[in-house]
Design brief:
Elements lengths: L2 H7 L7 H10 L1 E4 L5 H13 L24 H5 L1 E4 L5 H7 L2 H11 L4 E11 L9 E4 L13 E6 L10 E3 L21 H9 L14 E5 L4 E3 L8 E10 L30 E2 L3
């Protein structure tokens, strides 16, 4: 990454009052060029240049029964997931930069921002076997003792709405945790029940330029339509939290096997503090 691009990541962003208000009222918002466009395009190039064996996608849930998922291949149609440790160092630089940290701190309104996980979500075109990403919340899948974390989903490349960008059910961050989605075992799940009962309205899919982002609360119900384009949709999603959050011990593909202690803060050696000022 060139020095010029890196200096752009060290800048801070001042959010408008309307952007902050939209986030707190609706549970999601949009921020244009949360990272510089040139950086986003570089990240896309870096990912596409990886050797096939270096792009092996992970299942979000490694222990099928414990995570309430099944081996149903329909789940894999939603997206392929590439974790940070399989990506190049430019991704780490972008997700841990002051530019992004300033946005997160303003929306969370906390003293320190801590990074929980980074994933690149690869949604294949419908013609290549891709499908719909079903409605869900993020909070039921993270072993954190309080809700309120957020995810910044950055477009890597120019993404028209038809590529299947994220859509949201405004206000659902006030519903509390609705539990883990179990759609793929054809069983009961609270998200589907609430969707039918309340006749949820889903926000339109936005068109995003490279570097633009949607940002959502960990309790905001969200999903994505099919990718109706001919290109793969790449989105870099990082979940950030208040550094005062504690580890609950709940199963998670991110933390399973890590040397974490119950009811203690997440160690910054594994979950770094992100600069924000």
């Amino acid at each position: 990454m060139t020095p010029t691009l890196m200096s752009g990541l060290d800048e801070t962003i001042t959010l408008s009052a309307d952007t902050v208000e939209h986030y707190h009222e609706h549970g999601w918002t949009r921020v244009n060029e949360v990272i510089p466009r040139e950086v986003a395009l570089l990240l896309r190039e870096r990912f596409l240049s990886l050797e096939p064996e270096d792009k092996a996608a992970e299942l979000e849930a490694l222990d099928i029964e414990k995570q309430n998922y099944t081996s149903d291949p329909e789940y894999r149609k939603q997206h392929l997931i590439h974790r940070e440790n399989s990506l190049t160092e430019e991704f780490t630089r972008a997700t841990r930069c002051r530019r992004v940290g300033s946005v997160v701190r303003r929306l969370l309104d906390v003293p320190e921002v801590q990074l929980f996980r980074t994933s690149l979500f690869e949604k294949k075109p419908e013609s290549g076997g891709g499908g719909v990403t079903t409605l869900h919340q993020d909070y039921p899948y993270i072993p954190v003792d309080r809700s309120g974390s957020l995810t910044i989903w950055i477009a890597l490349g120019d993404l028209p709405a038809e590529t299947g960008t994220l859509q949201f059910v405004s206000g659902t961050h006030r519903e509390g945790s609705l539990g883990r989605d179990r759609t793929f075992i054809k069983g009961y799940d609270r998200v589907t029940e609430m969707e039918r009962k309340l006749d949820w309205k889903v926000s339109p899919a936005p068109s995003l330029r490279a570097g633009d982002a949607t940002i959502h609360h960990d309790l905001t119900v969200h999903g994505a339509g099919i990718n109706a384009s001919s290109d793969t949709r790449l989105g870099l999603a990082t979940l950030y939290m208040d550094s005062r959050c504690l580890f609950t011990g709940a199963p998670s593909a991110v933390t399973d096997g890590m040397p974490l202690q119950l009811n203690t803060a997440f160690p910054t050696t594994l979950f770094p503090i992100v600069p924000s000022v």
